[in-house]
Amino acid sequence: MLKIKSLSNDWGRFRLKDINLEVEKGEFLVILGPSGAGKTLLLESIAGFTIPDSGKILKAKEDITSYSPENRDIGFVYQDFALFPHLSVRQNIEFGIKDQENSKKRAKDLASFLGIDHLLDAAPLTLSGGEKQRVTLARALATEPGLMLFDEPLSSLDERIQEKMRKEIKNIHEQMNLTSIYVTHNQAEAMFLADRIAIMMEGEIVQVGEPENIFYGPINKQIAEFVGVENIYNGTITEKDDNLAKVNIGKKDIEVITETAEGKNVRIMIRPEEIFIGTEKDKNSKSARNQLELVIDDILDQGSLVRLELSNSIKLIAYVTRKSLSELDLEKGRKVYASFKASSVHTVER
Amino acid sequence: MKTEINKTVILFSIFSVILILYLLITIGNLIISQLVIDAGALWKTMWDSSVLKSIWISFSASFVSTAIAFLFGTPLAYFLARKNFPGKNFIESLIDVPVIIPHTVAGIALISVFGYNGLIGSPLEEIGIRFVDAFPGIVVAMLFVSIPFYINHVREGFESIDPKLENVARTLGESEWGTFRTITLPLAYRDVLAGSIMSWARGISEFGAVILITYYPMIAPVLIFERFRSFGLGASRPIAVVLILVSILIFVILRYLSRGWSLYAKD
């Protein structure tokens, strides 16, 4: 559907460096990255608001790199809505509809689909954030664009509405058979919406994959840190039997599943969510091949989950529910056992 | 703490009032003393055909110069607000030049270019368009001094419009021109109107640049100057009062009309 080939664009503060990216028809691709990574510039390049220094953008095999925005058949939804303040909601939605005869009906259908039909005669300034974003969606959908671009569309809404709108956008994408590229810095949003995620950092696409692959298999330390993998260690593979290997990370050996050969230096990452905390040593467990005896250094209440900072042979971050916190009677200074599967450890060669 | 603020407010108020009084006394004294000393002369002046003619020439010439500023200045203001191009700083400074140079200097410059032997005046004279001592001369002089007011006002108006609105309009199928027509210009309407009023008012108030290039036909300030020189204050003051009253009236009406556009307040 959309193919970006070696796209580069230097805007001084923001820049794109040799971007290669493909989106399939019907796909929901999320571009995830910290702010300042150049995500918006990438979207604006796709939309044609800026012409890239080099590289190509192909849409349905047609080279659209030098097309004007109005000839690209691409819809755009901005974070801060960008509703036309001098036009009513209805006029905003009808703005892009070329078929004058059916524009009234189409605007009305879209408005009722998005639950804003009672606002058609209102002025955009009078709407709430959630309503404004619905109008923006209706306006972009009205032209039935071949590709939808979303630039952090939920960031300026409050959290409660964010979750609702997130579901709605996913729903619209599926029901209307859209092809979507969605930019965000919010990991949860990406996880929820994406068919695939492209991680963008400092103007480059650094990793592309399905959400699980990204969150459980970040290919480098920056990505791991950005997507929230907190337990990262450097070590060396000391033993290997088939794909099951032992990685020495100093005072400890960690069992991992990896393709990397014996003797290689590796970096391992353990997602805190995959660590189980117990107060007694579990001798029967076969699958949790790693079991570490650690001491609780600190307990941090983070809402529904409680974050544990553990140390002894290594420092480790883990999460438990509030329920287990009280059931296991966990407190600072207490000795616990942290277990995790060899397959939960992600290994990258250094 | 509270008394601190009050002290500031009082001090600021005193300074403000002094400045306001300076304006009010100067303008008010002119009008009131004319009414008190010689109301009859004022009445007579109102129906003096040479006075009315000079005011008409002032207003119409300034209107034409504002129309030219609108036609040619709006695209330039848009470019300055939206695009980056080499020489932009130079052009921005150039636009401000008429504000800083003495208007007699502007007049000299204009007459050198638009005069009988001037770069532009000479070839246009051939085809029958004359600037010296003619209506077009008044227009070019007024245009020269009012351009900065129009451009700077309108440019600020365009700058205050979020470019994202234009971007979205493009994705919805509008061309660059269509976007300017349907989004940018309607949203900048107030600033365009305000810029036009400023430009028009500036044109009417111009004296120095105009008198050098066009003495006849007389604009109102030139007529006032001539009457003052020939017959003194008593003869010139009534015209000044009439000009002030008419200008204020029109200014108030335009200000009132442009207020209605506050609907377009930015999101």
Automatic annotation (TrEMBL), chain A:
Gene Ontology terms for molecular function: ABC-type tungstate transporter activity; ATP binding; ATP hydrolysis activity
Matching Gene3D superfamilies: 2.40.50.100, P-loop containing nucleotide triphosphate hydrolases
Stored SMART domains: AAA
Cellular compartments per GO CC: plasma membrane
Entry EC no(s): 7.3.2.6
Location relative to the cell: Cell membrane
Major localization listed first in the record, in broad terms: membrane
Membrane association type: Peripheral membrane protein
Domain ABC transporter: start-end pairs: 2-227
PROSITE patterns: ABC_TRANSPORTER_1, ABC_TRANSPORTER_2, MOP
A Pfam cross-reference name: ABC_tran
InterPro entries, per database record: AAA+_ATPase, ABC_SmlMolc_Importer, ABC_transporter-like_ATP-bd, ABC_transporter-like_CS, Mo/tungstate-bd_C_term_dom, Mop_domain, P-loop_NTPase, Transp-assoc_OB_typ1
Reaction(s) the record says it catalyses: tungstate(in) + ATP + H2O = tungstate(out) + ADP + phosphate + H(+)
Keyword annotations: ATP-binding, Molybdenum, Nucleotide-binding, Transport
Keyword Transport: yes
Domain Mop stretches: 285-349
One BP term from GO: molybdate ion transport
Nucleotide-binding among keywords: yes
Quaternary assembly: The complex is composed of two ATP-binding proteins (WtpC), two transmembrane proteins (WtpB) and a solute-binding protein (WtpA).
Family to which the UniProt record says this protein belongs: Belongs to the ABC transporter superfamily. Sulfate/tungstate importer (TC 3.A.1.6) family.
Function: Part of the ABC transporter complex WtpABC involved in molybdate/tungstate import. Responsible for energy coupling to the transport system.
Protein name (database record): Molybdate/tungstate import ATP-binding protein WtpC
Organism for this UniProt entry: Methanohalarchaeum thermophilum
From TrEMBL, chain B:
Domain ABC transmembrane type-1: 55-254
Domain of life where this protein originates: Archaea
GO biological process: transmembrane transport
Keywords linked to the UniProt accession: Cell membrane, Membrane, Molybdenum, Transmembrane, Transmembrane helix, Transport
Subcellular localization, as worded in the UniProt entry: Cell membrane
A single GO cellular-component term on record: plasma membrane
Annotated TM spans: 9-35, 55-81, 93-114, 134-151, 207-225, 237-257
Membrane topology: Multi-pass membrane protein
InterPro entries per the UniProt record, alphabetical: MetI-like, MetI-like_sf
Gene3D superfamilies per UniProt: MetI-like
Annotated Pfam families: BPD_transp_1
Family statement drawn from the similarity comment of this UniProt entry: Belongs to the binding-protein-dependent transport system permease family.
Protein name according to UniProt: ABC-type sulfate transport system, permease component
Organism listed in the record: Methanohalarchaeum thermophilum
